[in-house]
Each structure stands twice: as C-alpha cells, then as structure tokens.
C-alpha cells in the first residue's frame, strides 16, 4: 500500500515475504539480481524463473525494466502481456489495490481483438454474457420506438460480450503474471522521470512517491484522464463537448429471473441503447446490458450539454433507471454498486500524439473511444492500440532505438489496423452527434408517424409517406435539417 | 426497483478513505469569480461538491468515484484534482 518504507525497488528486488505484494507471482519476482549490470535489453523465457540481469545500461541510462506500463486496464494489460510473452522484462503498475478495482466500463466489449490476443478468451475469461440481441430505443416523454435486432450471426462467431471490469481485469493481470510480467498494484505513479535530450524531454521512467523506476519505454495506459500524457503535453485538456460522463449502477437480479425477463438462454445476453427523454434531452444516451446475474444500467451525458442545460448528472441517472421503459426489466432488482467514468467522445480529433521519446500512449489515455451512434467502443480500441504499441515497442527495443522515431512503428501499426481505420472513418461522427435533434425531435417524429399508422379511429388514414410528411411538418425539424442530417449522418457514421 | 438516493447508492460501494491526503482541493478565491462551482456541482454524480451558505464550495472527497468529470469542466485554476494515493479511494467490486 501507499508509503511502505521499503520502497518500490525493495518490493521488487527480494524483500522479506511480508513486504511483497500479495499478487506477486513467484516466477515474476527477480530474486537474485545483479544490480547495475550492463547489457542489452533483457530477454527471458516466459514461465521461467527470471534471474539476474534486469538493471542495464543503454547509453547512459540504467533501467530497471525494459518497459514500465502504467495502468492495469485493458490497454495496459494487453500491452504488458504481449511484451512479457515476447520475453521482455515488464513492470505493470496499478494504482488500485488490485487490478480492476478502479476500472469501470459501460460493459460491452467487442471481442474479436481480445480473442486474437487470448485465443482461449471465451473459454477462460470471466466475461458475463454473449450479446446476440441489440435493442435501440428512441424514448419520448409519453412514447418510445424500439428496434429489436436479434441475429444468430452475432453469436457465432461471438461478436461482443458484456464484462464487469473488477472481474475481468484481475484475469487479464493474471495472464500478464503468467508470462513473467511483474504486476505491482496499490501504487500511484505521480510523474514521469525525464531527462533533457537533444530534441527536448525524453521519458526515462516513472516516479511514485520517493521511488524512481527506470525503463527503456514507459507505456501510459493510465486511462481517459491520462495525467502522464497531459503533463508531457501530448494531450491537451479536452474541451467540454469532447467528453461525457458515464454514470452507472450494477443491479443484482437472480439469474433465472433475468433470463426469463430478457428471453435469454445459456450465456446469451442483450444490450439496450436508448436516446431521447431518458437523458432529459441531454446529448448522450442511456444503456442497459445483461450480465450473468445482474444488469449494468446507466447514462452517458455530454458535459457541455449537461452544464448548459443546468441539469445534474445524478438526477438524470435516477430519471433513467426509474423510467417506465426500464421498470419491467429492473423490477425486484437491487442496486449493488454506483460508479462513474469519463468517456472521450471527440473521436479522431481527440487522439493526441501517441508517441514520445521513451513513451507511448495507449487506450483511453490516447483518446481512443468511438461513438458511432449505435455502438460505443473503447475496450476493443484499447486492445487494438495495445497490440500495435507492443509491436512498435518490440521493434524499437530490437533496434536499440526507443526515441520517438524508433517507436514510430506503433502509430503506423495503429493506423494500418482496423482501430485506426475506424477512428478515421468516423472522424466526423462526434460533430454530427452533437446536433441536438438526435436526442429529442427524431424520437417524437418517429412516434408521430407510427401513431398515425397504428391508431384507428374516425379519421381516414394516409399513405405512410403522407403521414411522414405531415409529421415532419408538425415537427420542429425542417426538411432542410432532415436532408442535412441524412447526408451528413450518412457520411459521418 | 428502488433507485435509492445518491448517498444510499454510494453506501453500496467500498471506499478506503485516505485520511492523510485530500485529493481534491477547491481554490475558493478563484471559484468565486468563476461559473465552475455550479458546473462541478452539476456534473459530479457522487455529490462531492456542494455550495455552502457562505457561497464557498465544500468538498466531500471521501465519496469521489474518481471519474474526473469535475476536472473536465472546471476552469483552470479553480480546482486541483488528482487521483488518491495508491490503494486508497473507491474500490469497485463490479466495475
């Protein structure tokens, strides 16, 4: 925990058992270290006792590890795992007392990338349910329109799973330990260690309290607030329209009840996305996802809109989980946790510099989140960036050049991967989704059209196109808006 | 289902309070001349911030969910916010 007198290096290099982190795996403990040995970046065989050389000199810099990863979330764990597997000495630092204890996500992981990293993911990892049913609801004050999309092709091969991060992340960290990564929880990195090089600052390690730890490469996987990237000037503070706050509760519900209610069998699950009145018209949306024996339910609210409308995030959250759309699903449920998380919604424009002399930035810390309107993605992008970063780092270490130039392989790999391509594809998405109509008027318009179709009274019906035209005329949305939204939306999403 | 109050929802969480370090500090003087006070009160889902009768903003840092929404909206100089020391703060058991 914080402030143990032995120091972090003490914790790493053979202290009495009582001083060691309970999560340290025997084979990851560097027990008889030749302190200050000179050599090239280390290679150890994973799953073997790591002995000897960990303190090296490359140029003038002594390092404790080849790579220090800050943050044991999805991006950090996957980066550390790949490098550990490649035989590099890796330290994974996590500020939570256990991996996952600080981490929170909405809950849907698009898992193709994860399965490529961990082929046994679906057999071994503690995920919740496989999503084969997606519902999108436009919720108005007194009406709602829902698209219910079920498709066996989403289940085979499995496309997305729900996860609870306090359960998933310890598993990811365990995979890291199994390939020789030294996992050190309960430690907050306070700042980067830098030296003044020819071209400016070079990152040479991290500082935690009084302790300094050095590495050839530091990986900033410290999440959406990434103080490491920000302090180095790699990312500026995002503007209010580029970030949203996610507010979520996990609601316990007996498994049989849940499966019956959502019409699920086996490990199948459902994901609901809702827009409109469920957020009182604030830009963003609501969601609820099925876990094994609980439901993750919450809202994502764009901060600029929240502030402008003078609404409280907690009030909108309560409005959402008490709404009549959710009530039948949540009945008899019991809230067992309340959390929140910042969501980067700036898309491509929000990705800052991802590489620096001696450092790379991955996952949320690099601004890698994507809201396409129907899907909200973050964890899969974290995996993709981690895979690209590990490639870039590996090749930089091989060449003995961990400068920005030497690490350039990361950004190349990132933008030639599906992650980079998707970030680019949806570049204009955030601006489009900022159009306020998305969150209010369209839901009303849809419901209006359907009302005229379904209500049978003494008024003669019109052809549906006529109904739509009339509804549009009544709606505050102009024809020009509609055309513009269709064209821009079509191009942006 | 009972949606509970913010305080009752927070009571379901596990927190390890760091009594040795307060990780959030409001600059009351700077905040006086800024709309940030109202903004951080609005965005914080844990009601960490409240306006006191004398106009200052009080901070209940023990309830912080560590999302950083306040920092994202606060104008420069009004709020000092960083993560609690290692091992302290909220401990999600679900996530």
Provide an overview of this structure.
The complex is a heterodimer of chains A (493) and B (95). Chain A contains 17 helices and 21 strands. Chain A has 493 residues and is an alpha+beta fold. Chain A has three domains: 8-98 and 168-232 and 351-425, FAD/NAD(P)-binding domain, CATH 3.50.50; 129-162 and 240-345, D-Amino Acid Oxidase, Chain A, domain 2 (2-Layer Sandwich); 440-492, no CATH class. In chain A, helix 2 runs parallel beside helix 5 (165-178), helix 2 packs parallel to helix 11 (379-399) and helix 15 (441-454) crosses helix 16. Chain B is of the alpha+beta class. Chain B has a two-stranded antiparallel sheet with strand order 1-6. Chain B has a two-stranded antiparallel sheet with strand order 2-5. Chain B has a two-stranded antiparallel sheet with strand order 3-4. Chain B is built from four helices and six strands, in the order αββααββαββ. Classes of the chains: A alpha+beta (493), B alpha+beta (95). Chains A and B meet through helix 5, strand 13, helix 8, helix 9 and strand 17 of A and helix 1, helix 3, helix 4 and strand 6 of B.
What is the structure about, briefly put?
The complex is a heterodimer of chains A (493) and B (95). Chain A has 493 residues and is an alpha+beta fold.
Keywords:
heterodimer, A: 493 residues, alpha+beta, FAD/NAD(P)-binding domain, D-Amino Acid Oxidase, Chain A, domain 2, 3 domains, eight-stranded mixed β-sheet, seven-stranded mixed β-sheet, 17 helices, 21 strands, B: 95 residues, Alpha-Beta Plaits, two-stranded antiparallel ribbon, 4 helices, 19% strand
């Amino acid at each position: 925990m914080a402030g143990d007198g032995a120091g972090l290096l003490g914790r790493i290099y053979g202290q009495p058992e009582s001083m060691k982190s309970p999560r340290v795996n025997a084979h990851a403990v560097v027990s008889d270290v030749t302190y200050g040995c000179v050599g090239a970046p280390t290679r150890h065989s994973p799953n073997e006792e790591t002995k000897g050389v960990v303190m090296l000199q490359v140029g003038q810099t002594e390092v404790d590890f080849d790579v220090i990863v800050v943050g044991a979330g999805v991006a950090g764990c996957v980066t550390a795992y790949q490098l550990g597997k490649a035989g590099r000495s890796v330290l994974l630092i996590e500020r939570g007392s256990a991996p996952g204890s600080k981490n929170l996500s909405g809950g849907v992981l698009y898992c193709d990338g994860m399965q490529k990293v961990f082929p046994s993911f679906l057999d071994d990892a503690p995920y919740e349910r496989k999503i084969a049913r997606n519902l999108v609801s436009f919720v108005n004050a007194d009406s709602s329109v829902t698209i219910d999309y079920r498709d066996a092709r989403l289940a085979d091969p499995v496309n997305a799973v729900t996860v609870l991060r306090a359960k998933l992340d310890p598993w990811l960290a365990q995979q890291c330990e199994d390939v020789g990564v030294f996992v050190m929880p309960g430690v907050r990195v306070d700042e980067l260690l830098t030296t003044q090089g020819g071209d400016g600052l070079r990152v040479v390690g991290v500082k935690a309290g009084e302790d300094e730890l050095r590495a050839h490469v530091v990986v900033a996987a410290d999440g959406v607030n990434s103080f490491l990237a920000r302090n180095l000037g790699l990312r500026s503070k995002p503007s209010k329209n580029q970030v949203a706050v996610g507010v979520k509760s996990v609601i316990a519900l007996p498994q049989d009840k849940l499966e019956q209610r959502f019409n699920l069998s086996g490990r199948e699950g459902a994901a609901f996305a809702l827009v409109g009145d469920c957020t009182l018209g604030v830009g963003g949306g609501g969601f609820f996802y099925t876990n094994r024996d609980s439901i993750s339910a919450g809202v994502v609210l764009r901060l600029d809109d929240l502030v402008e409308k003078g609404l409280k995030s907690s009030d909108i959250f309560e409005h959402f989980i008490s709404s009549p759309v959710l009530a039948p699903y949540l009945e008899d449920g019991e809230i067992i946790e309340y959390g929140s998380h910042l969501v980067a919604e700036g898309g491509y424009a929000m990705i800052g510099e991802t590489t620096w002399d001696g450092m790379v930035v991955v996952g949320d810390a690099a601004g890698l989140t994507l809201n396409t309107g129907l899907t909200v993605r973050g964890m899969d992008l974290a995996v993709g960036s981690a895979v690209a970063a590990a490639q870039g780092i590996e090749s930089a270490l091989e060449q003995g050049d961990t400068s920005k130039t030497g690490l350039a392989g990361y950004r190349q790999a990132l933008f030639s991967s599906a992650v980079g391509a998707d970030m680019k594809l949806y570049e204009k998405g955030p601006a489009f989704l900022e159009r306020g109509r998305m969150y209010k008027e369209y839901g009303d318009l849809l419901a209006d059209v359907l009302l005229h179709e379904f209500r049978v009274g003494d008024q003669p019906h019109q052809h549906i196109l006529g109904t739509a035209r009339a509804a549009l005329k009544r709606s505050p949305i102009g024809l020009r808006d509609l055309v513009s939204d269709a064209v821009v939306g079509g191009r942006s999403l | 289902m009972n949606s509970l109050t913010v305080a009752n929802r927070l009571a379901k969480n596990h927190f390890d309070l760091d009594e040795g370090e307060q990780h959030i500090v409001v600059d009351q003087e700077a905040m006086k001349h800024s709309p940030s006070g109202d903004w951080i009160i609005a965005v914080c889902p844990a009601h960490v911030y409240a306006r006191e009768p004398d106009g200052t903003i009080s901070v209940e840092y023990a309830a912080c969910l560590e999302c950083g929404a306040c920092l994202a909206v606060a104008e420069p100089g009004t709020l000092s916010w960083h993560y609690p020391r290692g091992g302290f703060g909220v401990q999600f058991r679900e996530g």
